């Protein structure tokens, strides 16, 4: 009876976690890379795609996100980013609101990362802004940008 039970446990464990399944990766650390703007689409035929440089620093359930300015790194939403992880993937998110000359705005940022190797990852970036107090017909009521590319561990 013990032999049958032992075989059943071994067989069941293979169904739940196959021996060749990749182990969860450690994504903590600093990652940088160039992302290509995929939305909004460039309206000039034949023009090179716009790019931007992104840095993310992951530490547990917190993250910092930076965009490269002309000379320096600019931190986006300091202290606001949180991390959700599952195995080789992570999503960094921040959402907040504030006031400016146009009224109340609500802004959402996300960076989705899929780690390909210890030092390489795919990344999708998005930013979405809604200016709540502007009329629906306003050109600046809401806007978004999205980019994709690869990050390297630094």
Structural key phrases:
56% strand, 9-stranded antiparallel β-sheet, mainly beta, 154 residues, disordered N terminus, Lipocalin
Description of the molecule:
- The chain is built from 1 helix and 9 strands.
- A hairpin with a 2-residue loop joins strand 6 (89-100) and strand 7.
- The protein is globular, with a radius of gyration of 21 Å.
- The protein has one domain (26-153): Lipocalin.
- The N and C termini lie far apart (54 Å).
- The chain has 154 residues and is mainly beta.
- Strands 4-3-2-1-9-8-7-6-5 form a 9-stranded antiparallel beta sheet, with no helix packed on it.
- The model is unreliable at 1-19 (pLDDT under 50).
- Helix content is 10%, strand content 56%.
Just name the CATH architecture.
Answer: Beta Barrel
**What's the total number of strands?**
9
The residue ranges in which pLDDT falls below 50 over 5 or more consecutive positions are 1-19
Q: Write down the domain tally.
A: 1
CATH fold type = Lipocalin
> What class would the helix/strand composition place it in?
mainly beta
Strand order of the largest sheet: 4-3-2-1-9-8-7-6-5
Number of helices: 1
| Overall morphology | globular
């Amino acid at each position: 009876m013990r032999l049958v039970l032992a075989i059943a446990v071994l067989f069941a464990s293979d169904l739940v976690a196959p021996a060749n399944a990749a182990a969860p990766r450690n994504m903590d650390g600093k990652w940088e890379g160039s992302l290509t703007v995929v939305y909004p689409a460039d309206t000039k035929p034949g023009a090179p795609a716009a790019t931007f440089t992104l840095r993310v620093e992951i530490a547990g359930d917190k993250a910092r996100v930076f965009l490269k300015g002309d000379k320096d790194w600019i931190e986006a939403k300091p202290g606001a980013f949180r991390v959700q992880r599952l195995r080789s993937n992570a999503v960094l998110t921040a959402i907040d609101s504030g006031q400016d000359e146009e009224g109340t705005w609500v802004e959402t940022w996300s960076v989705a990362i899929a780690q390909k190797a210890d030092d390489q990852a795919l990344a999708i970036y998005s930013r979405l802004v809604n200016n709540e107090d502007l009329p629906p017909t306003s050109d600046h009521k809401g806007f978004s940008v999205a980019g994709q590319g690869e990050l390297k561990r630094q």
